[in-house]
Amino acid sequence: AQTVTQSQPEMSVQEAETVTLSCTYDTSENNYYLFWYKQPPSRQMILVIRQEAYKQQNATENRFSVNFQKAAKSFSLKISDSQLGDTAMYFCAFMKQFVQGAQKLVFGQGTRLTINP
Amino acid sequence: ETGVTQSPTHLIKTRGQQVTLRCSSQSGHNTVSWYQQALGQGPQFIFQYYREEENGRGNFPPRFSGLQFPNYSSELNVNALELDDSALYLCASSFPRGGGRAVVNEQFFGPGTRLTVL
Looking at the complex, does the CB of residue A72 fall below 8 Å from at least one CB of chain B? Predict the structure, then answer.
């Protein structure tokens, strides 16, 4: 079974600073996908960024980027030039690549990120 | 394009009762997944429906059941409610791409239903 671990329950930074959220996972699969989701107080889970395990290049989406270390099973999220709107719970998630059958997300426990003015 | 919607927003039930939660998938999506998110935790996979059939299930007892309708909307039913069933229930829809090839379906989440069991 796959597990996802986020070791930082809470983090707090000043606006415009850079912050890195950590995530490790455990799997015996070779083909899989990793995601970072954001859940603001509105509760709607929003996809921030995704990474395919077969790609060596780290994914980037505007101010968000990942550091994917497949051998170490590490998948951290870096937020540059943080903004007040980045305040939310952030979840790291894993999905095994299926040919058929349920494609389920396995989530970590989350990191509560607060951006202070 | 309409996103994923869920109803009701909040619900209060007492132990032993039954509850039905509803989800309308995003336009064009034929797969619906349900997750339970306890307070302060990450979501846990309950089950997934694809073309009106259960396509996979997590570690939840049979009193958690579901349906998917021809328009791809879905219901989550929970019988004999227990206090530990208090949680945010999230629905996510997705659309398989690539036919039979191994692909990942990005899941789009609704705002959730907050269930409180007293």
Answer: no
